[in-house]
């Protein structure tokens, strides 16, 4: 007999999030430059999607002269790769994607924190083990209170982001304390063709970061297709429990 690992409470939570899906198509943000920190599979997958949507992108790398990832994909052949310092201190860039391990994020940002006041950073990390303390995104917001952090794209695999034919009903769950920053990332998500779901404040990141762990613990057990079709998890890193104040449960 097949048993599912998803509780009724978890099912109610994700169905509730889907009911809040944004259908308001705000003005596009195309032609803006997005900084992507990290040149791994997820960073390059999202970079290609952004290029296809009309965005300019620049990768921040510890080794900008080592452009091996570009040679593997012709779509990225003309993309600029610069040092982390030059990307983070670029005054023309407002939105950054943190496509690096969570353990490296604080040390990456700290030297340039005075240059990052008011900037928007998208945290795609997940927990590596269950926890009931603050989420990765909340921790970053505590360490860098002048940066606007948004939890987003963490429940999508690099394959799902890169593939035009994946699933057909994927969604991108978005949480952040600053409403303007959250809306900017939701619009970015629409622009790349992935409908966003507004999850409210950053407290929701605890549930969003914990859920990929739940899927992993029962890998091999059939998914609950009524809602998991749109939650193919990208398992780079993972995190905790609890949801935002404006999300009843």
From TrEMBL:
<dbReference type="InterPro" id="IPR036291">
    <property type="entry name" value="NAD(P)-bd_dom_sf"/>
</dbReference>
<dbReference type="GO" id="GO:0052851">
    <property type="term" value="F:ferric-chelate reductase (NADPH) activity"/>
</dbReference>
<dbReference type="InterPro" id="IPR051267">
    <property type="entry name" value="STEAP_metalloreductase"/>
</dbReference>
<dbReference type="GO" id="GO:0005886">
    <property type="term" value="C:plasma membrane"/>
</dbReference>
<protein>
    <recommendedName>
        <fullName>Pyrroline-5-carboxylate reductase catalytic N-terminal domain-containing protein</fullName>
    </recommendedName>
</protein>
<feature type="domain" description="Pyrroline-5-carboxylate reductase catalytic N-terminal">
    <location>
        <begin position="33"/>
        <end position="126"/>
    </location>
</feature>
<dbReference type="GO" id="GO:0005768">
    <property type="term" value="C:endosome"/>
</dbReference>
<dbReference type="Pfam" id="PF03807">
    <property type="entry name" value="F420_oxidored"/>
</dbReference>
<keyword id="KW-0560">Oxidoreductase</keyword>
<dbReference type="GO" id="GO:0008823">
    <property type="term" value="F:cupric reductase (NADH) activity"/>
</dbReference>
<dbReference type="InterPro" id="IPR028939">
    <property type="entry name" value="P5C_Rdtase_cat_N"/>
</dbReference>
<dbReference type="GO" id="GO:0015677">
    <property type="term" value="P:copper ion import"/>
</dbReference>
């Amino acid at each position: 007999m097949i048993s599912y690992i998803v509780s009724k409470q978890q099912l109610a939570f994700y169905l509730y999030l889907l009911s809040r899906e944004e259908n308001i198509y705000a003005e596009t943000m195309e032609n803006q430059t997005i900084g992507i920190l990290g040149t791994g599979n997820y960073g390059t997958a999202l970079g290609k999607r952004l290029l296809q949507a009309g965005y300019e992108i620049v990768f921040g790398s510890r080794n900008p002269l080592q452009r091996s990832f570009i040679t593997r994909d012709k779509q990225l052949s003309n993309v600029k790769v610069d040092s982390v310092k030059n990307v983070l201190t670029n005054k023309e860039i407002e939105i950054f994607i943190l496509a690096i391990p969570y353990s490296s994020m604080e040390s990456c940002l700290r030297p340039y924190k005075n240059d990052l006041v008011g900037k928007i950073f998208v945290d795609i990390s997940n927990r590596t083990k269950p926890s009931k303390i603050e989420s990765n995104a909340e921790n970053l917001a505590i360490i860098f209170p002048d940066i606007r952090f948004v939890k987003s794209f963490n429940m999508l695999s690099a394959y799902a982001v890169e593939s035009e034919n994946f699933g057909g009903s994927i969604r991108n769950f978005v949480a952040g304390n600053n409403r303007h920053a959250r809306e900017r990332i939701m619009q970015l998500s629409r622009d790349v063709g992935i409908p966003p779901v507004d999850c409210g404040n950053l407290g929701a990141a605890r549930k969003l970061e914990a859920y990929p762990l739940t899927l992993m613990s029962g890998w091999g057990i059939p998914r609950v297709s009524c809602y998991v079709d749109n939650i193919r998890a990208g398992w780079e890193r993972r995190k905790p429990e609890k949801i935002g104040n404006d999300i009843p449960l």
